[in-house]
Write a structure and sequence with these properties.
The protein starts with a helix and ends with a helix. It has a 6-stranded mixed beta sheet, with helices on both faces. A two-stranded antiparallel sheet has the order 4-7. It has 480 residues and is of the alpha/beta class. Helices cover 49% and strands 9% of the residues. 28% of the residues are buried. The protein has 2 domains: 98 residues, no CATH class; 371 residues, no CATH class.
């Protein structure tokens, strides 16, 4: 999370060390850190030349990464702590044209209200990769900006699949937010019904109500921002890699064998890369913004310890049997939508992969491995050997199932009565059944503010710095 020694030590003493029995000072902590080989950027002594090879390798996957993004990727993916000023010098030396392009600002500001952590979770789908046979889905806590999941699959419009993403996260956490939020669409019926039932399970007063917000077009703001960031920060490099196979004719979505091998190989690889991206973003503090009266810190840290940032947490504890009930009712694990490819096909693809040595996949060898597997399985399909009839049958059955899915889409689940549409700048969370903070909650916030010792230049976690406040004077800062 890029915290300094004092911040790390404070968390250790507050959350992990019994200070009645043990003590740990800053000097002892620094010695421990040095012995573990964890060094700050100055001690790593990087130069423009020493980071050149790593930056060039990163550029293949992240061609548009700026200084902040490059610093984060080097830190999380390459274990290199490089000063931002050094990265900027590198850009001016090797990428002067790209520096000029990144200077353009094209921001659109929108207003969003949230009362605290776990007030709501906003979900959304992303279809820009459907031309490759890939579909994306995200779930985010708008208050702290933490991404709970970002999943890639061959489908994102099945309510069972979408609900499974939500339940996978919620079951690990053991709790749910007060309310969920999404665009209109039958793919979100599963989440709407499950969220409503789970809330009613633990609060009978909510019986008959919908604990889900339906947002009009372009009003589900936070996921839209997340997708915009994804499109700029992650997608370009990986789209280029996938497009190489399409352009070369290796991957054709009209050929069933190509589609199955592509799904079997690319989706797990892409999910691993996406998980790394999400982990990096969740552990990186957002850029200071004077227009946001929100806590300023790494999203994961704010979400895990909201009281440290003077924030409220509205999580609702859920019993395991409640999760089991809604999963079995709305997203049974036996449903075919949860199969990456038919099991028999996966078995034969695994054998073909093992024959070439099961190499670790990366951006360089992913297409050669794909081509090897396609050729191996193509021989089976062409020869139609009797011993492989189960494989041939599985491919044929998959083609029939895919065609039926396109012609006769699954009937969506009916919504619980009372669905409402929202839009505009009103508060859309679930605190006090949608009315927001009351006197008691405001007093809790005031008490947190009194208990927290804010550093100079901080107001409720909003950090100001000389190079990011555009020269605002101290009086304006006090007003903020």
């Amino acid at each position: 999370m890029r915290k300094n020694d004092k911040e790390i030590l404070r968390i250790l003493l507050d959350d992990h060390i019994d200070t009645d029995r043990y003590g740990l000072g800053i000097n002892s902590f620094c010695k421990i850190r040095w012995n573990l080989g964890v060094e700050w950027s100055r001690r790593q002594n990087h130069t423009v030349e020493s980071i050149h090879e790593d930056v060039q390798a990163i550029r293949r996957l992240y061609p548009l990464a700026g200084a902040r993004e490059m610093k984060s990727i080097l830190f999380h993916d390459r274990d290199m702590d490089v000063e931002r000023s050094l990265i900027i010098r590198y850009f001016h030396a090797y990428e002067s044209d790209m520096v000029k392009e990144r200077k353009a600002r094209r921001l659109k500001r929108r207003r969003f209200w949230a009362a605290g952590v776990n007030d709501l979770v906003a979900v959304d789908q992303h279809d820009k990769w459907k031309r490759f046979g890939l579909a994306l889905h995200i779930g985010e806590d708008p208050f702290c900006g933490v991404t709970h999941w970002l999943r890639v699959w061959h489908n994102n419009n099945n309510p069972k699949l979408v609900l499974s993403y939500y339940l996978d996260w919620a079951e690990v956490s053991g709790y749910i937010p007060l309310i969920t939020q999404s665009d209109l669409g039958s793919e979100n019926y599963g989440i709407a019904n499950a969220q409503s039932i789970l809330r009613q399970w633990h609060d009978p007063r909510l019986e008959g109500t919908v604990q889900h917000r339906w947002m009009r077009s372009k009003k589900n703001v936070k996921p839209e921002i997340a997708w915009s960031q994804f499109r700029r920060r992650f997608a370009p490099g990986f789209e280029t890699i996938i497009q190489e196979g399409v352009t070369a004719g290796w991957y054709d979505m009209t050929r069933p064998l190509d589609v199955l091998v592509f799904r079997w190989l690319f989706i797990p690889w892409l999910q691993t890369e996406i998980n790394a991206y999400v982990e990096r973003v969740n552990n990186t503090r957002k850029r200071a913004d004077r227009n946001k009266v929100l806590p300023h810190g790494p999203p994961n840290d704010i979400f895990a310890s909201p009281e440290r940032y003077g924030c409220l947490d509205f999580k609702v504890k859920v019993e395991p049997e409640a999760f089991e009930y809604v999963r079995e009712k709305f997203a049974p694990p036996s449903d075919p939508v949860f199969e990456l490819v038919p099991p028999i096909f996966a078995e034969y693809a695994g054998q073909a992969y093992a024959k070439i040595g099961s190499p670790e996949l990366n951006s360089v060898n992913i297409w050669p491995v794909y081509c090897e597997i396609v050729l191996s399985l193509q021989d089976i399909t062409t020869n139609r050997a009797g011993s492989c009839q189960d494989y041939i049958n599985s491919v044929d059955e998959w083609q029939v199932a895919e065609s039926l899915q396109e012609i006769e889409p699954e009937t969506p689940y009916p919504l619980i009565d009372g669905r409402a549409l929202f839009g505009g700048d009103e508060y859309l969370g679930g605190v006090n059944e949608g009315w927001g903070l009351d006197t008691e909650l405001e007093q809790r916030l005031d008490a947190m503010e009194d208990d927290n010792e804010f550093e100079p230049g901080e107001v409720h976690g909003l950090v100001f710095s000389e190079d990011e406040d555009n020269g605002a004077n101290p009086e304006e800062k006090d007003n903020w």
